[in-house]
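Bug report

Summary: structure tokens for Homocysteine S-methyltransferase differ between web form and batch submission.
Environment: batch mode, default settings.
Steps: 1) Submit the sequence below via batch. 2) Compare with the web form result.

Sequence submitted:
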Amino acid sequence: MESLATALSAGPVVLDGGLATELAAAGHDLSDHLWSARLLHDQPEAIIAAHLAFLRAGAQVVITASYQATFEGLARAGFDDRAATTLLTRSVTLAREARQRVETAGPLWVAASVGPYGAMLADGSEYRGRYGLSVDELVRFHRRRMAVLAEAGADVLALETVPDVVEAEAMLRVVQESGTPAWLSYTIDGDRTRAGQPLEEAFRLAADVPEVIAVGVNCSDPGDVAHATAVAAEVTGKPVVAYPNSGEIWDATARTWTGEPGWGPEPVRTWIDAGARLVGGCCRVTPAQITDLSTHLRRR
């Protein structure tokens, strides 16, 4: 099968949308600190169904339900190392199973989600960064699960929702050790990472890492993406990945989403014009919206 890196050199590739959004819409309770990763154990068929919804909507890449699956987080939930390895492996297996159930004329890829250290804490730390850990400590945290996900047969590792250049440096070190293809995607606020570092500094870390096939942003406001995409393309010379949230804001007090969505085919076109080649959505982006995007790109 053609590699994702090769496909990106030929034109835009469509990512999926919010996996947890689709699972919640199907009625699954994601309030556990493991979030969607809990379903890897409890209801694996639900994960396949969510992947299928996006693939049938036109996504060419699906991201696994491993964002919040870590050895440490799973241990807190009562899973020993062997069980954790099984669940991490299963996240890739389920995505591959969904891919096999879809008839398509073109290739489809599986990206293994590697969420940040803060995702394991389940306290919003991935939107702040600066955990007080060294690069070496973060390398030790990420190394085992990244190895399991790569060995499970993922086409690429999605180093995603990274808030901090310190964590990015650690993740990139592991990628270089293993030689596994990956993309690096920060969560940002305006023209800086969530931890406050300039985007030029953040993206430059990946510029000379051959294993990194794309660099960009996710789980951010759509309005911040065009500038970040242009910076990433200029600083690294690599294809850019862009999959922000819908633009709505979660009101924790009212427990509801507020504001107007800013995600859609028209904004995505501006990201592509700025250098984005791997495009999709994160939280609150649905299969219907991915269909709109896929249809729009076919007409370009």
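Above is the batch result. After comparison, the two runs are identical; trailing whitespace caused the diff. The longest strand covers residues 156-162. The chain is about 45% helix and 15% strand.
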